[in-house]
Design brief:
The protein is of the alpha+beta class and 425 residues long. It folds into two domains: 309 residues, Rossmann fold; 110 residues, no CATH class. 28% of the residues lie in helices and 27% in strands. The protein contains 13 helices and 18 strands. The strands form four sheets. Strands 2-1-6-7-8-9-10 form a seven-stranded antiparallel β-sheet. A six-stranded mixed β-sheet has the order 11-15-16-5-17-18, with helices on both faces. Helix 11 links the parallel strand 15 and strand 16. Helix 7 packs across helix 10 and helix 10 packs parallel to helix 11. One of its GO terms (molecular function) is ATP binding. It comes from Collinsella intestinalis. This is ATP-binding protein.
Length: 425
């Protein structure tokens, strides 16, 4: 499970901001959102199944999601970059000191009741620092620490149990943009596969408005797809979308993408000739039976709901962390609430999957505990800060959404004067 994530000097986040999934001991509300943690170093804590981010447009909500996505990208792909390729680097650009300073990321997570603490900082040309610790007992154990010494040389500190990792040091010196964790996974280094696989595979990212015909076909294909399709049909039958069935359709890729042949080499065409293009077909009830539609016949809102619902079902099946930017984009709040509630239900969420989302609909706050609501604010210097609603005094008799809309917690847009500026008042 995701326990904590910190980011510094990335996008609009200048100073280190930390988001914690550790449940506050001061709130006894909505215990269905908490899971007792059995990992050493966290045994007295409960972990939250969801975290939400609210704030004005351009306040930095998306930056939090992007930072987590960026960390995953580094872990998955940095070792595979060509030697002359730079790392994606997006520091805070509104003051000179931070433009050249490294971006830094820290993440705490658990795998099979083992806690891992991982951190990395980098510029475009090199990784500056990378460290991994684990807790199998109450004390931390260093797995590796890669850093730059005072002379600018890379050092790799290893414990005796990790000494076999020394063989990749030459690779890292020749390719300073590669993470240790990324290269170790390429080498199949077993002691690091558990933390690598969690970051690389258990962090999932959903884009509701980017679902199209090809998005659902692979999801619905195969034996595992049967379960997802069955659950999706159960959900949409209660969502008033008019859809009564979903099925997968396969056709030759080159037939589907007609006209692309003249743009490809003969070698590429040969590779693609037998490749299937899988799409989803949506069945609607009709007066004389049923009618099938491709995604082009469905509304943006319908596709957004089906996309997020499918991603949620897969995350729930796998016990993964699902990150959704603007979960309420193109969706009615009632549908969004149903998706959120799936993660709270212990019968549906048996593997303790987690949901991290950004939103603009204040009423969604009322589905959550105070320590699950985070508020983003962009200040006059352009820097984003992230605060927990649990830091504020919320009246027990007041809905969180009401206090937020009244501006009691900040993180709302200042729009005074927009109308008058247009009418000349």
């Amino acid at each position: 499970m995701l326990v904590e994530f910190s980011v510094e000097n990335y996008g609009s986040i200048r100073d280190e901001q930390t988001v914690s999934f550790v449940a506050s001991r001061y709130f006894k509300e909505a215990d269905e959102w908490t899971v007792a943690c059995g990992a050493p170093g966290l045994k007295s804590e409960s972990i939250l199944k969801a975290a939400s981010f609210f704030g004005a447009n351009a306040s930095g909500k998306t930056t939090v999601v992007d930072a987590l996505n960026h960390l995953q990208w580094l872990v998955r792909f940095s070792a595979g970059l060509m030697p002359d390729m730079m790392l994606p680097f997006n520091p805070f650009k509104l003051d000179s000191a931070h433009r050249s300073a490294p971006s830094a990321f820290k993440i705490i997570f658990t795998v099979d009741d083992v806690r891992y603490d991982y951190e990395v900082s980098h510029r475009s040309d090199r990784v500056m620092n990378e460290k991994l610790e684990k807790y199998e007992t109450g004390r931390s154990q260093l797995m590796f620490h890669r850093y730059m010494d005072d002379s600018g040389s890379m050092q790799l500190k290893l414990t005796s149990k990790m000494s076999a990792l020394k063989k990749i040091q030459q690779f890292l010196e020749n390719k300073p943009t590669s993470l240790v964790l990324s290269r170790a996974a390429q080498e199949g280094f077993e002691p690091l596969m558990a933390p690598y696989n969690w970051i690389a595979k258990q962090l999932r990212f959903s884009e509701p408005d980017e679902k199209d015909a090809s998005s659902f076909g692979p999801i619905l294909d195969g034996a595992e797809g049967d379960d997802i399709r069955s659950d999706l049909i159960k959900i949409i039958s209660h969502a008033d979308l008019g859809i009564v069935g979903i099925k997968s359709k396969s056709e030759p890729f080159l037939e589907r993408m007609s006209g692309i042949e003249q743009m490809l080499s003969q070698e590429a065409l040969e590779r693609l000739k037998d490749m299937p293009f899988k799409t989803a077909i949506f069945t609607h009830a009709a007066e004389d039976g049923s009618v099938d539609f491709e995604s082009s016949g469905e509304s943006v809102g319908t596709l957004a709901f089906l996309g997020v619902a499918a991603d949620a079902l897969i995350a729930l099946r796998d016990g993964a962390v699902l990150c959704v930017d603007e979960i309420d984009r193109s969706l009615h709040p009632a549908l969004v609430r149903e998706i959120i509630r799936m993660f709270a239900d212990e019968w549906i969420n048996k593997k303790h999957a987690q949901l991290l989302f950004t939103a603009h609909t204040p009423q969604l706050m009322d589905e959550l505990r105070r320590d699950q609501v985070w508020l983003t604010t962009k200040w006059g210097n352009g820097a984003t800060t992230v605060e927990s609603l649990s830091d504020y005094s919320v009246r027990k008799s007041e809905r969180k959404s009401v206090g937020y809309e009244l501006g009691r917690y900040g993180a709302v847009p200042y729009v005074d004067g927009i109308y008058s500026s247009l009418v000349g008042a």
